[in-house]
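Notes from the 1:1 (GR / supervisor)

We went over the backlog. Supervisor wanted to see one worked example end to end before approving the batch request, so GR pasted a single chain during the call. The sequence is below; no edits were made to it. Supervisor asked that the structure be written out right there so they could see what the output format looks like.
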Amino acid sequence: MRRDLHNKKVVVVGAGRSGLALADYFQKCGAAVILSDRREAQRIAGLGALLERDLVLDLGGHTPALFAQADFVVVSPGVSLDLPAVAAARATGIPVYGEVEVAYQELDAPVLGITGTNGKSTTTSLLGAMLQNWGQRTFVGGNLGNPLIEAAGKPWDYLVVELSSFQLEAINAFRPRYAILLNISADHLDRYPDMGSYVAAKCRLFENQREQDVAVLNADDPAVLAATEEVRSRKVYFSSARVLAQGMGFDGENLVWRWQGGEHRFAVAELELKGMHNIENVMAALIPALLEGCPPEIAWQAACDFKGLAHRMVPVRTLNDVTWYNDSKGTNVGSVVKSLAGLQAPVTLIAGGRDKGGDYGALAPMVAEKVAHLILIGEAAPRMEQALGGLSHTVRVNSLEEAVRTASALTAPGGTVLLSPACSSFDMFASFEERGDLFTRAVLGLPGRQEEAI
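Structure output shown during the call:
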């Protein structure tokens, strides 16, 4: 963007964390800001400081007349470009930007962008830690944590950015030096009309790359390979199934990096992170760090020190010889499949929430193999029971607290209880974090014996 914003009229759509950061940025640049959200003010946290600078609020809906007066409109991640007020503004020629695009125009450091259905946050955090361990001034954020617009106006060596399909819908000139696509499985089909539309949004990550840029791709994912056939940047692959002649592979014990005639091995046993999905995340993170010149021992030490992120297969406690895991971030079917794959049967699975349109039948083989008890909550419970209920003992309950009590009563010593919902949290909670925190509190509040700290 890089233009004089003084006295420009800007509509920011969505008053979540990114929307508030955008409003703050534009206000500081001298723009007249209208913040539009369907919620009322009492349901929006963090408005106070913005209101001191003459912020105009358009709450309880979106007023087309205010959009029509704007010099441009900026949508927060998750706001659909098909929102009627946004679509009407676009139809009259008013520019519409996404938060990532606005931020990109104000930044000079190279962007390392990470997308995929699962593993984005872990890979983003790993790569950021590797570059920081190397002494580089590295911003880590995007869809994870800090909005990218918060990086504007500060000196960075690298910007490591998690990118959702929603954010990628609204890019224009955004061009990452590294574009990482971890995997593709069905997700957000409540937002997209079909799987092809979802994949197309993901692959916008590559559309502005040039031949000197790098696409980091999962060689084991047929959907990734099919979707990136026409990518024109330099492709570098990772594989957890084999050692590659060129790229990052796995021999069963070591990650094997082969590049331009050299080879380096990393012993997987040294990692704190467990599970094949995390091995893939580490491989994907290592590639751009090594290609940028980070010494292998520095990048690997950061990977070995990394203990994982909250609400992603976090062990909560062992009680009466039953181990409890919080995987509240498991918000799609593919994520739950990977989480179950890393556990031994018998598992009591707590699942459900707001239905995102996924095919729960894809869970069937893993449920049949691993799950002794299936406890369902939320709006998606009827659909999930229809798809999976005949494969294990299935119970529907009315709350997460009731699910924890039921799981405690049903799970025999030696078993595992896993919260991995395969759904979003928004039918009952404000976020997956709130859902995971409530689960953790409920589990820690259970009475019992032989408890071990994890």
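Supervisor's comment: The mean pLDDT is 93.
Batch request approved.
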